[in-house]
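request received
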Amino acid sequence: MSNIEAFKNNELDLKKVEFEQVDQPGSVGLLGHAKGFWVTFSTIFKKPETVEYPEVKAPTQERFHGRHQLNRHPDGLEKCIGCELCAWACPADAIYVEGADNTEEHRMSPGERYGKVYQINYLRCVFCGLCIEACPTRALTMTNEYELADDSREKLIFEKDDLLGPLRAGMLMPPHPMYPDMDDKNYYKGDVTESHPSQEIK
Amino acid sequence: MTTAQLIGADPGWLITVKALLVFIFCVILTLLSVWGERRLVGRMQQRPGPNRVGPFGLIQALADGVKLALKEDIIPAAADKVVFVLAPIISATTCFMSFAVIPITGPVTLFGQKTAMQLTDLPIGVLYVLAIASVGVYGIILAGWSSGSTYPLLGGLRSSAQVISYEIAMGLSLVAVFIYAGSMSTSDIVAAQSKTWYAVVLFPSFVIFAISMVGETNRAPFDLAEAEGELVGGFHTEYSSLKFALFFLAEYVNIISVSALATTLFLGGYHAPPFLGFTENWLGGWFTAIWFFSKVLVFFFVFVWLRGTLPRLRYDQFMQFGWKILIPVSIVWILIVATLRLLSLQGAPRLVVVGFASFVVLLVMLVNIGFEKAKKKKEEAVFDEGPAPSFAVPALPIKKESDHV
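response:
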């Protein structure tokens, strides 16, 4: 570290910088070569590491960066608040978000705002996961799904419908009001664990 | 009756049948060897290789061939059109020709005619093979030259230099075989090996031949003419469709034919391995063909093994190896073999032969010691760098006493 500082101030004479002699691996000799040939020969009799892909699909690592998913609160309301932090974090400019205000008649997420338009362009996405780190509500996460090939540009721009997580047991399809006597802070803390009958719009 | 006389009595129709058989055989063997190579290299890299088209992927090469044939055939605007078309034709025709003098079986009966599975027998059979191989190289050189593009030109140049260098070593390694067999005819050479193979008697020649035949066929680790990493595709960069397929075919037929040549010259051709001589009469003599092809397959396996194991040589290393090691070693070896052969032909006493052999061994050891000493001296030598330059120069990457402050 001190060396680098000295360079900046032209205090260190370049001539006095010592070079380390690097040990070059020389000739490996006949036995070394034989060893190399043995490696390839013996590998013939090992079981191949590959899988027959389209028929057999090996599971990915647990935290593999695959297709994104927009998550929901346990009562079915969307977690996305349309803040666009993911879009700002994206180094490839692959995300487009348009937020809109929630109203009492049309509530998609707890709190003031929700993501009205949410697009991810998978021709641009580099699956770095910075959007996931940026998301303040854990609305955006990544799944392990990696089969994202298609035959047109349009099909590879995923809309909100493509990205939203499924409605699980106990969830109601938004828009619907928030859980009675709960506000967005309760949602954020995880106090809401299921939907309430009063939330259902008849 | 010698094989030459046996073949000489062939009627015209039989010669045609044999020629057709050799041709069909080479093509089928090429298709299978492409598949075999990909499977084997795959296994060496712990993957299965092509296994989708047909049983075990056997007709993958055929499918690839059909695909290649259906591709657009492009001739670059800068290309010399006549030569550009001619080059793959030269490559693909010459590669089949060397198989004409390879004896595949001993005496057999084909359609009621006593003959041997060998298209023709020339008194200078092996020289003919070498000549054909040299003509075949024109295909590569002309392809590189006529493409009108830089990378193919470099590939063609490399290939010409490569083949010239390695042909010398190859030719020299064969001289010992000629001296021992007393003939250049392939059938005579095989007949002379009925007791011991030349791979054993003339082991250094065999090694030199085996190395130079890899250089001669432009195969890894000597595939500098088409080095993908440096020259895109080398001489065939600009080729597409059927013309490319012809080069592909030529490469594999060449492998098969040099393997067949090596089998003929060093591994006793169609003869059975030691102690299995009784099998040579099985199936009316046709069993010898099985021995022949198993030997060819062994060579083919070595080709694939080399490709799976060794990285490509640097160009200067490659030339150095050819000119500074292979050629001098073969020349010295020929001198030794010639002397020994002369001694034994003149009926010299055993003591003289043994004396000469030990003298040679001693000489080799002395030369080796000399080389080691010279190498050590060179390593220890301190270079005089002259007066220090006026501008800043980092010290050499070797620590010397004077560098320590």
